[in-house]
Give the backbone structure.
Amino acid sequence: MHPLLQKVARYIQESELLRGKDTVVVAVSGGADSVALLDILSSLGEQRLVVAHLNHLLRGNDSDCDAAFVGGLATQYGLPLESRSIDVYRYSYEKRLSLEEGGREARYAWFDEVAAKYGAQAVALGHHADDQAETVLMRLLRGAGTSGLSGISPLSAGRYIRPLLCARRVEIEEYLENRNLSFRTDGSNTDTRFLRNRVRHELLPFLETFNPSIRDRLVGTAEILSADEALLEDITEKAFERLASAAGTRIAVDLPALRTELPGLRLRIYRGAIRTAKGNLAHISLKHLRQIDELAFSVKANSSITLPENMTVTKHYQALFFAPASAHEAGEALELVIEAPGTYPLPGGKLLSVTRTEAPVNWKNQAPGRAYFDLDAVPFPWVVRTFRDGDRFTPLGMKGSKKVKDFFIDMKIPLSIRRKVPLVASNGTIIWIAGFRLAEQARVRVGTRNVVLAETIDDEH
């Protein structure tokens, strides 16, 4: 057995990348690395393989020739082929991504689709040790923390495996020559307009004048940082479970407890909250994490910041809320006329139920989501609407009026939902802040005969 085959087989076993009968989608571009990957996995012979190729349409006829070459490989190995073409230039332009980012996003979407079609447990990619060294340097130049500097993981997202991370480029080239395997050469790999190519062809050779083993040192550093990162992620996960909770579509983080944590852990908790709320950490940098930390320690009771991709972080008294910004979160315009008892839809999947009933024994005994009304004092039609600046009402049990805004503040109702709270009015006077407080003039008194019960309930349909 060729030494590289033994090395990769051992790495797959040690890193627990594959099991005996897994179905594996092999990403094959036609280049040296992917051809070697396909041949090695085929030679090891334990898994069911599917070849996947994405034609980026960036190099004209060369791109078409790559696709044809990969098709020939699939035939040669007797494997099913899934191939697709996509205009990556247009895709990147429409999504406002760099060509590198757009190409990567399009590839992974395609691989996911193929994996789903075949019920594959893994998608194998051809990254090797030299790619690892380049990645560490690129992330260092861009200002990454320990998670970024830990480099490329042998297993990510639960399915993407990189069996060649243990191998240097020279080992792969020697393997291809020994096996007499041909491959395609992508001319764009020498185009130094791309950062990776500049790192590969300019920066790394320069660093080798200081340390000829710089590539091995960078790979070793990535391995150490990867182990450290696993430890820190375990600590962060436990802290996140203790401090964070779901609040509807938002993630809420307990502020008093958060402020007692060390800065490094706080920043990681912010990353976890963002990842949970929006699904990724795209375009989130140290600058944004520091902004969140400043917000957490701000003396203002209510304030917020906007992060990339329309993500918002809102501070409300004793919590930080992380959520994608949306029209719903900002508040929805509402004006609903109620002329008689019935059931009426409210924003956010709620219903307002109004029914005639008997007077309650104790008018003070009212749950937050339900209230009894003296219909003679507050007759129909009612108008249900959202908060407006300057709104006032007389809370139950009080004589003077109060600003609704001040009531929200006293009740510690988050700023982000204040304009979503339904207000019920009769003859232009607010008689109920639905779910929170009845107005004094609407209450049921001794001798009241014309009573209705209003409740906010979930729409089960």
